[in-house]
Write a structure and sequence with these properties.
Number of domains: 2
CATH architecture of the largest domain: Orthogonal Bundle
Distance between the termini: 10 Å
Shape: elongated
Radius of gyration: 30 Å
Length: about 425
């Protein structure tokens, strides 16, 4: 899905996600000899592929010596692997085994680079078709915000570029792509996601019980290891000592002890079953216990009882509206994604050695994998699992998940920390 861009996405997200504008050529479906793919009338040149393939290899090396797998013989790759020390006690791998390893690495990097470049073309062409654009000023401002958060020191930023074989132009292009996707999301969902008053009311009636507020009780309590200690604590309370004083002297509950024994807003299903049964059977203001439970013996008092209640439609209208808006946005985007993918895949032809699932002439075995992540929608880059974020990468805020089916950058790009699951906002 197309996802909301937030400043918290570090520049690391764009590590190997930069894309190059493909040249526009004449009509026809044949891929020119100098290109690896053609999307409509635009081509992805072999030169562009090679450049981003080298960047992918640099990123995969995590700042170490990068030897890009070099088909068809993989001589440099094999030589580089042979120079690496073997694990203690392990035999030296054969040249055939190393060549196979290099071939697998090449195909993985090739597929990720192709996938990313193709989907980037899809996003750009869809944006142009819908009249969506991003100014240089918008791109520059977003880039500077990202850079400041991810790399407080200029030296760190320069090292990042060097380690990943990138230029600032590459990152600026990716920032632009991400902003195009943000604007596309807004345009696609605009006027189609806000539920009507009738829909909100129907949702309230259908799920009325889920909005009910259960009875809650505020307790003051003391927890002890033994019944004898609990009796001592109760006697002190009967003599007029405050719960704060008694909890400080007797309680072993580190959660409530610093609060003077206070445990507010207790609802059913939260506490030890024995304590809960006693608490919800007790009257307000009466000292109870000792009650034996899982963690020891409780002496407690119910300070306040808040009866169960059923909020009115007006009380929860905003909450329901937001829930339905998120659901509607997701449905609109899901419908768009399906049509978007079918439309652009039909227009995408790839050279024989560069065919992947996004190509209309994809090999049959690749047709079962219809896209990156989960659907092939245009979205912010989704780095491979397992690669660590660079030092200084900011943590994204809660609320927006990684985009569904986003273009995937070449392997080795460091990802941001994972976002919580939930519907994205445009």
């Amino acid at each position: 899905m197309i996802s909301r861009f937030t400043p918290a996405r570090s520049l690391a997200t764009f590590a190997l996600a930069g894309l190059c504008a493909a040249a526009v050529v004449g009509c026809g479906n044949d891929v020119p000899p100098s290109a690896v793919a053609k999307v409509g009338d635009s081509t992805i040149s072999k030169e562009d592929f090679d450049r981003w393939y080298e960047n992918a290899a640099a990123g995969a090396s995590q700042g170490g010596q990068a030897v890009a797998p070099d088909p068809p013989d993989y001589e440099k790759c094999v030589a580089g692997l042979q120079e690496q020390p073997s694990p203690e006690g392990a035999g030296k791998p054969t040249e055939d085994a190393l060549q196979k390893q290099c071939k697998e690495q090449y195909e993985s990097l090739r597929d990720q680079v192709m996938q990313f470049l193709i989907q980037a073309q899809w996003v750009q062409q869809e944006a142009e078709a819908r009249g969506v654009s991003v100014s240089d000023e918008e791109v520059k401002k977003s880039f500077e915000d990202q850079k400041t958060k991810a790399f407080p020191k200029e030296a760190d930023y320069q090292k990042f570029l060097k380690d990943n074989g990138m230029s600032e132009e590459d990152i600026l292009f990716q920032v632009k792509l991400d902003q195009l996707q943000t604007k596309l999301t807004k345009k696609i969902t605009e006027g189609k996601a806000t539920p009507s008053d009738e829909e909100v009311a129907a949702e309230y009636e259908k799920n009325k019980k889920t909005y009910a507020v259960p009875e809650s009780r505020d307790l003051s309590l003391v927890l002890t290891k033994t019944e004898a200690k609990a009796e001592q604590a109760k006697a002190a309370l009967d003599d007029g000592d405050s719960f704060r004083k008694v909890a400080k002297e007797f309680s072993i509950d580190e959660a409530t002890k610093p609060q003077g024994g206070k445990l507010p807003d207790v609802t059913r299903g939260q506490q030890d079953r024995d304590l809960e049964e006693a608490a919800f059977a007790a009257k307000k203001g009466e000292l109870e216990g000792p009650v034996e439970a899982q963690f020891g013996f409780y002496v407690f008092q119910v300070d306040e009882i808040t009866p169960a209640s059923q909020p009115t439609l007006e009380d929860v209208k905003d909450r329901i509206t937001q829930q339905l808006r998120s659901t509607n946005e997701q449905k609109v985007l899901d419908d768009f994604i399906k049509d978007f993918r079918e439309k652009y895949k039909e227009q995408t032809q790839c050279a024989d050695d560069y065919r992947i699932a996004e190509c209309d002439n994809a090999p049959e075995k690749e047709d079962t994998n219809t896209g990156p992540a989960s659907g092939g929608a245009p979205g912010a880059p989704q780095p491979p699992q397992g690669a660590p974020p660079p030092q200084g990468a900011p943590v994204p805020p809660q609320g927006a998940p990684p985009p569904q089916g986003a273009p995937v950058p070449p392997q080795g790009a460091p990802p941001p920390p994972p976002s919580p699951q939930g519907p994205a906002s445009p």
